[in-house]
Specification:
Blueprint lengths: L2 H7 L3 H25 L3 H29 L12 H20 L4 H31 L18 H6 L11 H45 L1
Length: about 220
């Protein structure tokens, strides 16, 4: 396959953009880790960013080459990308691990990054299938009808609102109702405090009256 066909079927930005994102993530994480663990956080961040960029470039370039060699296109089933991602992860982990950390880290790097590639592609396939299902389940309207369907929620909001998540994103109405309930409880507690204060003051007044009567006798 000539260079023009390769660029058309697998553009360079499919490698460079993920690599830049991985490098930027490495800079952020490396900078934070460098502040905690190293006396030179700048050098630690640069080294981490370069390593992450190398991992991203190697992984996506290898994965693209495998997809192209196996003739896996965008219309192919998502399951067809699991083995290329796993193989690319193993090659990336073994190569970068051997170059940056020595020969003893080649086998552990292959195993670890193969698992990362396999699990990551499975997770991406599941999220993408859920997104496509939510799009197909949206009600359609005719051109003359006013759409009444609610806009599709972001993926992170749907994940937090799922039954498996310990957290939930509140809407404006739910948050307002929550504040009203808390306000009612606070008002009830204040009323109880006022009643207690009134009771204490009444007892104090009764005690003063009793002392006054004893003094007159």
């Amino acid at each position: 396959m000539d260079q023009t066909s390769w660029k058309k079927l697998y553009p360079v930005e499919h490698v460079l953009i993920p690599a830049l994102k991985a490098g930027a993530s490495g800079l952020v994480v490396g900078g934070a880790a460098g502040i905690l663990r190293s006396s030179t956080p700048g050098l630690f961040a640069i080294a981490s960013g370069l390593q992450c960029a190398a991992l991203g470039t190697t992984f996506y370039a290898t994965r693209g080459a495998i997809l192209q060699a196996w003739q896996i296109t965008a219309s192919s089933p998502p399951q067809d990308r699991i083995y290329p991602s796993t193989l690319a992860g193993g090659i990336t982990g073994g190569t970068i691990g051997g170059l940056t950390r020595g020969r003893a880290n080649i086998i552990p790097g292959i195993i670890m990054f193969s698992v990362f590639g396999f699990a990551g592609q499975h997770l991406y396939n599941a999220l993408d299938a859920n997104h496509q299902l939510s799009l197909t389940n949206q009600p359609t309207t005719d051109a003359l009808e006013t759409p009444t369907a609610r806009p599709l929620e972001p993926r992170w909001r749907r994940m937090l609102n799922s039954r498996w998540s310990p957290m939930k994103v509140l809407s404006d109405e739910e948050y307002e109702q929550l504040l009203k309930e808390k306000l009612v409880r606070v008002e009830a507690e204040l009323a109880m405090v006022e009643d207690n204060i009134e009771e204490i003051q009444q007892k104090a007044r009764d005690g003063e009256k009793a002392d006054g009567k004893d003094g007159t006798h």
